Amino acid sequence: MSTTSVLFDAPGPRARLRNNILTLVSAVVLLAIAYVVIKGLADKGQFEGKLWQPFLEAQVWTGQIIPGIVATLEAAVVSAVLALVFGVVFGLGRLSDHAWIRVPAGAVVEFFRAIPLLLLIFFAQAGPATISGYTVSVPAFAAVVIGLTLYNGSVLAEVFRAGILSVPRGQSEAGYSLGLRKGGVMRLILLPQATTAMMPAIVSQMVVLLKDTALGWVIAYEELLNYGLKQIPSNFGNLIPSAIVISLVYIAINLALSYVANRLERRSRRSSKTTATVVGAPTAVGVGGGAT
């Protein structure tokens, strides 16, 4: 009996008919919503050529949109690397056998997970000057990176902790029986297996992190959203077309990120599989020592 037949019952004729009807109804509803939105935009003149003309000019892309994409990716990449380091350190800290490590690590993770990201960015920029009483200028880029690192790093710490705990206990026990210490078991046995299980959650959080760079707009960080919804509309008066174009750019970036991550996940799955050679039955040996 296959695993699919055990975990999933094939739908019968009535269930298939019901699923097809629900799919058709959902498609009709979505098409109706899309029609209403598009018609409303058309009635308001949002599809006039003059509003979309700026996006056909190379200067708009090279002078505003591409610099915004670069600034967004810079903040996202730096924040992602730091958040992964933060997540590994505090995720492992929460798994420590020592309470003086486990409890503070848990408190840090829960504290930063509970604070809205926008407040973390505000505190990162205005907090040092307020606390010290001196004029401390924190660049917008640094404030965005700090906020993204603390929040997403705390979420990733839980992802790492849950991923490591998802590995069957027998794996670590087998490592200890071979004489490995806890660090060796973690590095050689648990982490390689947990990484594959954690990859979808990590990729999902990286996509969230990339989109959250848009919050830098409120502290005047010149990223993609700042250019798309502030500078371009102020010059051409095309807010809705700008929002649509910027949304498509975000979608393209996130799809590219997901594609790369999926390729890495498939590669890691293939590399984790071991090929075994089927061992045949031993040949019979006759009385004289020869094979029969």
Automatic annotation (TrEMBL):
Record GO terms (molecular function): transmembrane transporter activity
InterPro entries: AA_ABC_transptr_permease_3TM (IPR010065), ArtM/GltK/GlnP/TcyL/YhdX-like (IPR043429), MetI-like (IPR000515), MetI-like_sf (IPR035906)
GO cellular component: ATP-binding cassette (ABC) transporter complex
Topology term for the membrane: Multi-pass membrane protein
UniProt cross-references to PROSITE patterns, sorted A to Z: ABC_TM1
GO biological-process terms attached to the record: amino acid transport
UniProtKB keywords: Cell membrane, Membrane, Transmembrane, Transmembrane helix, Transport
Membrane-spanning intervals of the chain: 21-42, 65-93, 105-125, 131-151, 188-208, 239-261
Chief location bin: membrane
Subcellular location: Cell membrane
ABC transmembrane type-1 domain sequence ranges: 69-261
Family: Belongs to the binding-protein-dependent transport system permease family.
Protein name: Amino acid ABC transporter permease
Species name: Sphaerisporangium album
